[in-house]
Write a structure and sequence with these properties.
Elements: H1 11-35, H2 48-65, H3 71-79, H4 85-90
Length: about 90
């Protein structure tokens, strides 16, 4: 739905706007859902789900900032040296 007149909002333009919105909306959710199996998580009460989502977002953004495109592969790479690589990525080593 829009309040724009048909001269300003063609069906193609509206379709592009809707797709771009869902692309932005789905990107972090898709990564968290597929890589971290977020939907299968057992944390469901209190602030736990929000806190875990924040930690997962921190992990994804830290890995992306470090230049990783494939988050699952980056997590595997980081897990091979769990006491040195995560602090290095966060700049706290």
């Amino acid at each position: 739905m829009t309040d724009l007149p048909s001269t300003q909002a063609s069906p193609q333009q509206l379709g592009e706007l809707a797709r771009s919105h869902w692309d932005i909306e789905n990107r972090p959710h898709c990564v968290r859902g597929s890589t971290f199996a977020e939907d299968a998580g057992r944390i469901r009460t209190g602030r736990g789900p929000e806190n875990m989502a924040a930690l997962r977002n921190l992990a994804v953004s830290t890995l992306r900032r470090a230049g990783h495109q494939n988050i699952a592969a980056a997590l595997r790479h980081v897990s091979y040296q769990p006491f040195t690589r995560p602090p290095d990525l966060l700049g706290i080593s």
